Structure formats: structure tokens, C-alpha cells
Amino acid sequence: MPLPVALAPLASPWAMKAVAGAATALAVYQAARRARWSDARPAAAEATLDAVPEGIEWGWSRDAGRARADARAGLRGQLRWGEDGPGIAMDLSALARLRLGLLKARSKPFRNPAR
Fold it and tell me: Could you tell me the superkingdom of the organism this chain comes from (predicted)?
């Protein structure tokens, strides 16, 4: 049975993609509403990030087959809309460390060349 002319625009590829997008958005919205958000964070981690001073610092060191890179960044500020308008307080802290070390080569198991 052919599709009635009045419903033809609803069967277009764009309409199908819009329906799929709306269904995905609805599923994400429902999952976000049901999720249990917790503001509890480890006190030691919060204290460490609060102690990061403002600015960016990084370093690199090498010794006896080992290499290490450290990085730290801290930014605190405010963003306001208008002179006395509402705003957002920002506190960005990041710590990173990368350690590299040389490993000795593994010995290969003996293979019989006659096979």
C-alpha cells in the first residue's frame, strides 16, 4: 500500500534522523535524572588541589635510565556578565606526572632450527 501524500514528509531521511536524535536525547535526559550524583570527594585530594598555586610550571629530569616529567597548573578567577551582574567563580587545578624507565630485554626462548 503506497504511503499517503500527506505523510510523505514524515518518511524523509531527515525526519527519521530527527526522530532518532529525539529518542536519544530523551534517553540521555532520563538517565541523567535517575543518576545518583555525589558531591563527596576525598578530603586529601581536595586539599592537594586547593594547595596548587596559580600559574603554570613544568619540569623534566633524566638520570640513570629514567626520565621524569612533572606539570602543574592553577587558575582562579571570576567571569561576570556586566559590571554588577551575575557570574561564575572558577578554580582550575591540574597535576600531572609521567615517569619513564628502561627495561632490560627479555631473553628469547630456545628454538630448534631443525623444525
Answer: Bacteria
